[in-house]
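ok so i was messing around last nite and threw this chain in just to see what happens. nothing serious, just curious
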Amino acid sequence: MCRVLKVKSSSYYDWSNRDISDQQIHRNHCELLVKAAHTETYERYGVDRLHAHLSDQGHDISPYMIRSIKEEHGIKCRRHKRFKVTTDSNHNKLVYDNVLNQQFDAKRPNESWVSDITYIWTDEGWLYLAGVKDLYTKELVGYAINKRMTADLVCRALNMAIKNKRPSKGLIVHSDRGSQYCSHAYHKTIKQHQFIGSMVSIRPSHLSLT
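result:
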């Protein structure tokens, strides 16, 4: 092998008997951490987010090192579906007037609740999350999760909020005009508890639960 590669045999034996350098040990350690972090973050993070993730765990690895390791080992982010619109207002179902009318400064708890549906990544994959937030306390008072975006999803979120907070009649429950919020079951719950239903006047870009 030395003859073919034109390397002195003494140089080969010197290399083979040499200990691994501290620099290489550090590099190997960083490779393991980057690969583990890439898996922990579901292969979604680029260099900057991966660097922040590792820093939060107490590991001092430079963005340059992370980029180098990713390129060397072909570590790439998985492609994900683009943002999905969760509001389907193209229907002829019953809608409420906009009673809330942008009055987001509630004066007391259980005066006004807002509702929305979003989706989150979990160990089970993408799931839909319906939430109900109290505008005064900013608390998420009710929620429900499911693989399907159905009327039952928003009803379960509202019923949890009712069970948790036991609001009085006259509570304003505001949402977008999504078909789930216009369902018979959802309207029945609002009527049963003598709440005041409210919906946006036009289709919104989003209603934030944060």
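not much to say yet. Residues 39 and 140 are 31 Å apart (CA to CA).
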